[in-house]
Structures are given as structure tokens and as C-alpha cells.
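Data deposition worksheet. Section B asks for the primary sequence of the deposited chain exactly as it was used as input, without tags or linkers unless they were present during the calculation. Section C holds the resulting structure in C-alpha cell form. Section D is free text for depositor observations; keep each observation to a single sentence. Incomplete worksheets are returned to the depositor.
Section A, Depositor: J.P.
Section B:
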Amino acid sequence: MEALSKANEVRSRRAALKADLKHGRVKMEDVLADPPEYLLTAKVADLLMAAPKCGRIKSARIMDLCRISPSKTVGGLSERQRQELLAYFGG
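Section C:
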């Protein structure tokens, strides 16, 4: 039950963060520069799609440009990949 409770909390916090990104209350470069712990296991593609004007095609193009695998998680990004994403988003 404890694991289920933690998983639900992580999902709800991720959903709130995605909503904040979509509405411009949080900047993508801030999230990428210092991701919260609950975001480390999230897919980079899911995070990118939460950005304004960034759907499935654009997020795939960004990941391709930064040489990031579609299965990569935020916590699994190398320093180079993180820096390229930050540069793309102006950070």
C-alpha cells in the first residue's frame, strides 16, 4: 500500500508540473537544470510534450537534434544531453 501511495503522489506531482509548464508558470530550463526527485524517472519525451507549442512531432525533433533516445529518462540524461536541451530552451 505504501508503494501505491507513493506512486500516486509522484503521478499527481508530475501532472501538476506538466500543467504549470503548459501554462507558463514554470520554465522548462528551470526544470531541466535542477529536476525534482519525482521527475527523475519520467521520460524526457513526456516532459517535452508538456511544453507550450510542443507536441509529439516537435518533441521527437528536439530529442533527435539533441541525440537523445526516446526511452531516455530525465534522471538518465548525460551532462551533454542536458546542456543541449538547456541551450535549445534558452537556458
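Section D:
DSSP finds five helices and no strands in the chain.
The chain has a mean pLDDT of 94.
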